[in-house]
Fold this sequence. Notes:
By secondary structure, this protein is mainly alpha-helical. The chain has helices at residues 4-37, 42-55.
Amino acid sequence: PVTHNKAWIEMIHRYLAMSVGFLILVLAVVSTWQKFKGHVAEKDAWQVRPFWALVH
Length: 56
């Protein structure tokens, strides 16, 4: 049985997870767009990659 309290906790979790997914999508689009426009140097991309390994 699903209680009212559990349902609200699940909905909050879903919306937070969706927000994180949306932010990741925005970061990917913006970084690709900046690289396409030539605003990001190649060495800057290497400095960000070790951080993403920790996030996963």
